[in-house]
Specification:
By secondary structure, this protein is mainly alpha-helical. It contains 18 helices and 6 strands. The protein has helices at 34-38, 74-80, 83-92, 98-109, 119-123, 131-141, 155-181, 194-203, 214-227, 234-243, 249-260, 268-279, 285-293, 314-330, 335-348, 351-355, 363-373, 380-400, and strands spanning 5-10, 13-20, 28-29, 58-61, 66-69, 72-73. It has a 3-stranded antiparallel beta sheet with strand order 1-2-3. A 3-stranded antiparallel beta sheet has the order 4-5-6. The longest helix is centred in the middle third of the chain and has 27 residues, at 155-181. The chain is globular, with a radius of gyration of 23 Å. Bound molecules: carboxymethyl coenzyme *A (CMC).
Length: 428
């Protein structure tokens, strides 16, 4: 707490508001009493200047391109940690000791199976359903199954719901994929890692043995780390808003999945690879860059730009390096990677992108890797959802245990008709 205040003058009257410091990053003007004192709302569509919560989970400095989870830089976590460890870190606040990590991994591993009844939900979908539509439906349906973990006032039940969500998401994502290609569902196996298990449930068939490639396992683990959490983004804010009413945790995560699907958010990884394929050849890049700059053309470079980062997205750097490693391991030379590199070079040296501070984001290179590993583009956003579930449950838990938490209820600037009398239909 500081004594610093901010004063807003409206029509000759001053309103003094406290300024609250964070541990790092911008201070905030506390406007909670402003409406009561002035009868005015503040206006901020898209929350470009509004802190919707206090949080101790993730810090982003968009100008400098810094991303910290519980204080740890993302590049250190991507290089040295594992997804399970990062999931624990997000949920509990500190890196686990060896026995804590073992217990956490055990807990997640033994929650990976889904209720057998849940398989019927998949069969209700068309085979060509987008995996994100299946994930939204099936994860929402979990709320009808696990009643012993839905008392959100009980921290232990919240933890069990969180473990279940982290554990079952790979099973559900893999089932969505299997359903789309008409192959049998593959049950999880407890002797494999979180990622190894997911790769096996996705790519193995009962007809033959499947061996997890350790390089791809590590690459996927890193991709999951890079997607684990990202502060108060659209889907996380959706989960928090849904959860603020006391809603069922599984339903809250389903709402996050629905929000993530959009092409401006998690859907950008699918859109980015489709765009790179459409460009096709490094020689065509300039044409697409010109289109992206044309005010009269709605085309945008997918995987470029970010609401918060006005610098290189630190996740994109790790992703670019991982892309090369995976292609080398698989001995693939994918022209799409050449197109991506050329596009990045041209855009980064172009005045339009420099002035608007548009840099590659996490989605720019992830598609190249996922494609090389063998995932169809429709699965990309489902993988994002799988990884982001760790952030969603961490943020949801933090919100529920925050004594300042209230139901989310934004106000509006009303611009519709003023009061008028009803006119019967034959008199209109
Ligand atoms: N290509 C061309 N121009 C762009 C792009 C782009 N990808 N992104 C922003 N701009 C321009 C935009 O036209 C606008 O120009 P002007 O000021 O002249 O009107 C200016 O830059 C600011 O854009 P904005 O839409 O006001 O910025 P925003 O903060 O509301 O949007 C964004 C951020 C991520 C939605 C946007 O950059 C975008 O649509 N990018 C492509 C989609 C994408 O890659 N999304 C993934 C984001 S990272 C993963 C995630 O969070 O899910």
């Amino acid at each position: 707490m500081t004594d610093k205040t901010a004063t807003l003058s409206v029509g000759g009257k001053d309103y003094e508001m406290p300024v609250l410091p964070g541990s790092v990053g911008p201070e905030v003007v506390d406007i909670r009493k402003f409406y009561g004192q002035s009868g005015m709302f503040t206006y901020d569509p898209g929350f470009t200047s509004t802190a919707s919560a206090q949080s101790a989970i993730t810090f982003i400095d968009g100008e400098e391109g810094i991303l910290l989870h519980r204080g740890y830089p993302i590049d250190q976590l991507a290089e040295k940690s594992t997804f399970m460890e990062v999931a624990y870190l997000l949920l509990h606040g500190d890196l686990p000791k060896k026995d804590e990590l073992d217990e956490f991994v055990h807990m997640i591993t033994y929650h990976t199976m889904v209720h057998e009844q849940l398989a019927h939900f998949f069969r209700g979908f068309r085979r060509d359903a987008h995996p994100m539509s299946i994930m939204t439906g099936v994860v929402g349906a979990l709320s009808a199954f696990y009643h012993d973990s839905t008392d959100i006032t009980d921290p232990q039940q919240r933890l069990i719901a969180s473990h279940r969500l982290i554990a079952k998401m790979p099973t559900i994502a893999a089932m969505a994929y299997k359903y789309s290609v008409g192959q049998p569902f593959v049950y999880p196996r407890n002797d494999l890692s979180y990622v190894g298990n997911f790769l096996r449930m996705t790519f193995s068939v009962p007809a033959e043995e499947y061996e997890v490639n350790p390089i791809l396992e590590r690459a996927m683990d890193r991709i999951f780390i890079l997607h684990a959490d990202h502060e108060q983004n659209a889907s996380t804010s959706t989960v928090r808003l849904a959860g603020s009413s006391g809603a069922n945790p599984f339903a809250c995560i389903a709402s996050g999945i629905a929000c993530l699907w959009g092409p401006a958010h998690g859907g950008a990884n699918e859109a980015a690879l489709n765009m790179l394929r459409e460009i096709g050849d490094a020689g065509n890049v300039k044409k697409y860059v010109d289109r992206a700059k044309d005010k009269n053309d709605p085309f945008r470079l997918m995987g470029f730009g970010h609401r918060v980062y006005k610098n290189y997205d630190p996740r994109a750097k790790v992703m670019q390096q991982t892309a090369q490693e995976v292609l080398d391991e698989l001995n693939i030379s994918d022209p799409v990677l050449d197109v991506a590199r050329e596009l990045e070079q041209i855009a980064l040296n172009d005045d339009y992108f420099i002035e608007k501070k548009l840099y590659p984001n996490v989605d720019f290179y992830s598609g190249v890797i996922l494609n090389a590993i063998g995932f169809p583009t429709e699965m990309f956003t489902a993988l994002f959802a799988l990884a982001r579930t760790t952030g969603w449950v961490a943020q949801w838990n933090e919100m529920i245990s925050d004594p300042e938490q209230k139901i989310g209820r934004p106000r509006q600037l009303y611009v519709g008709a003023t009061e008028r009398d009803y006119v019967p239909v034959d008199e209109r």
